[in-house]
Amino acid sequence: MALETKNIAKNQLVAEVKSLKAQGYRFVTMTCVDLGDGFDLLYHFDRDLQMTHLRITVLKGDTVPSISGIYFAALCIENETKDHFGISFDGLVLDFGGHFYLEEEVKRYPFCKVSVQESQAPKEGN
Amino acid sequence: MSTIIPFGPQHPVLPEPLHLKITLKDEIVTEAIPMLGYVHRGLETLVSLKDVDQMVQVVERVCGICSCIHAHTYCMCVEGILGIEVPQRAEFLRIIWSELHRMHSHLLWLGLLADAFGMESLFMHCWRIRERVMDVMEATAGNRVIISVNKVGGVRRDLSADQIRWIRQVIDELEAELDKIKPVLTNDYTVKKRTVGVGVLTKEQAYELGAVGPVLRGSGVAQDARMTGYGAYKYVDFEPVVETDGDSWARTMVRFRELYQAIDIVRQLINKLPDGEISVKVKAAKPEGEIVCRSEQPRGELMYYVKGNGSKFLERVRIRTPTFANVPPLLAMLPGIEMADVPVVALSIDPCISCTER
Fold first, then answer.
1. Which of chain A's residues have a Cβ under 8 Å away from the Cβ of B210?
2. Domain total for chain B?
3. ipTM score of the complex?
């Protein structure tokens, strides 16, 4: 069963989100799915109980434009996604720096199958 | 001169650890920053260890108060991907238990609110009434809170004719009990003094900031995920409960009126309860595809995203809980109020941190 999503490029995201806001959509949330070498980011919106979904696909290590300047409601989920998956959001209105939930001693991204930080870290003895 | 005061994570009015970094100018709040992570459990990652059926028990533990609705929403997702049609009787039973959860959640919250503004007797009355709902839960499902009635394909338990008669009698008694506390909640000076005009969220702010549930409806937006007609809600006649003032009083009234609404919905469902099977057999579910399902918890709209890859383990389960959505609106309610009002306003969103952090 396929979820109907509008697939867009990363650089189209802000314009698309602004357009949805102008049409009266409410921001519901964002979902991040680890694809192995990249991520699917799905943005969910609602108007009159009808949902619409945007999808962007990014590589691990990519920076994604924040939509928290358009929808303040995106503040929490973008910080959560940064904690869990290590994705950086450019222009986050309140950036917890990857410690929205996690303590500073946590160095890995717990929701990633292979986290960027883990895979890039030099191996012991090297 | 500004002062920063930590509100929480441990506070007499908070049953769970919510931490707000409050900036004050004299006694007036100028800014609030949420500090979370005290009960983060990473439950969504368990999809790699628990199979499709076992995940029902995992999602039930996201929240102790509305466990039944979590399980129901998750099951709707899996059933949607697999194309399973749930028997009608099971749909009715799921919603009966969901509305019982709404009743006990709202009564629990009303008690906590009464406790927060110092009205111990109202607190005890609310929780005494709530015990009647918990009795129904225990008698019909075997547990008081995490009732584990949902499974992929239907429900695990049925209601006998005797139980249905008894539930009907209990909800009649509940309605009479609510009538008794109604004058206190709606007319008492103390209740109004602490809630009227405090923590105002306008209709525009509520919508813009993504508020859900009683927070959204208390600000005059008639949105309720039950109106999508999922489960047996399509067979029920009801309208969203809406208040327009947007303050802590309005949110309280929405929840109180929703208690009567929940009683009415249970009554309608019991009267129309069809005969038949309560589940269909689902063997070794291996869903493939993506789906989004929504439901209305006591605290508001719940959203599940589920992605299956054709194996018995799902690839991703994402849970957007109502309190998570109500954190940005809370941050907008606090500036401009007195520090002494922060506990009541924070409680007025009915925060569930267990849900928020999962």
1. 26-28, 71, 73
2. 1
3. 0.89
The answer to whether position B187 is within a domain reads yes
Distance from CA of A93 to the nearest CA of B (A): 12
Quote the minimal CA–CA distance from B122 to chain A in Å: 34
Beta-carbon contacts of residue B130 (< 8 Å; ≥ 6 apart): B103, B104, B107, B108, B111
Superfamily of domain A6-114: NADH:ubiquinone oxidoreductase Nqo5 subunit (3.30.460.80)
| Residue range of the domain that includes B251 | 44-357
Q: How far is B352 from B17, CA to CA, in rounded Å?
A: 9
Beta pairing, strands A50-59 & A63-65? unpaired
Residue B248 lies in a domain: yes
Domain of B319: which CATH number?
Answer: 1.10.645.10
pLDDT tens, per residue, chain B with 358 residues: 788 988 878 887 777 888 888 899 988 999 888 888 888 888 888 888 888 889 999 999 888 788 889 999 999 999 999 999 999 999 999 999 999 999 999 999 999 988 888 888 889 999 999 999 999 999 998 888 888 899 999 999 999 999 999 999 999 999 999 999 999 888 888 888 888 988 899 999 999 899 999 999 999 999 999 999 998 999 999 999 999 999 999 999 999 999 999 999 999 999 999 998 998 888 878 888 999 999 999 999 999 999 998 888 899 999 999 999 999 999 999 999 998 889 889 889 888 888 888 8
> From the CA of A33, how many Å to the nearest CA of chain B?
7
How far from B292 is each of A78, B37, B171, B223, B342, CA to CA, in Å?
Answer: 19, 26, 33, 18, 35
**B chain contacts of residue A43, beta-carbon cutoff 8 Å:** none
d(Cα B263, Cα B265) in Å, to the nearest integer? 5
Contact B326, B212 (CB under 8 A): yes
Q: Give the one of A3, A32, A44 whose C-beta lies nearest to B291's C-beta.
A: A3
pTM for the whole structure:
0.90
User: Is residue B35, in this structure, part of any structural domain at all?
Assistant: no
Residue B277 forms part of a structural domain: yes
Contact B325 A29 (CB under 8 A): yes
| B328 contacts A100? CB cut-off 8 A | no
